[in-house]
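Notes from hallway chat w/ T.B., transcribed later so I don't forget. T.B. wanted the structure written out for a chain they're using in a teaching module, and asked if we could keep both sequence and structure tokens in one place. Agreed to drop them here.
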Amino acid sequence: MTDFIVSFGIPLAYFALFVAVVAAIIFPCMQMAQDAKGAKSALVGIGALVVVFLLCYVASESKEFTIGSNQMTGGEMKLIEAGLYLFYVSLVGSILAILYSTVSRYFK
């Protein structure tokens, strides 16, 4: 049974992953081609996210880190720290957006 899962299931999972990645790339591109105004706002949002990531990357430090026999280079640690900073900024931003939408609903 294990041989069947390995010989059939894993290639099937890779194929399903490939189909999902292609669909995740093709369908949004088709949607953006049909709706130019929506595409503009989506690209502005993606651009803002890239700018925030670049700011987080600049703010992060590049120190080497070792745990046991595993050693992380300065570049790896800089990317990890930038990702954490981006997560924190996104978390605070989403909480503020939720609070704003909730409070503004009461004043309408």
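Follow-up for T.B.: DSSP finds three helices and two strands in the chain. Might be a good example for the class.
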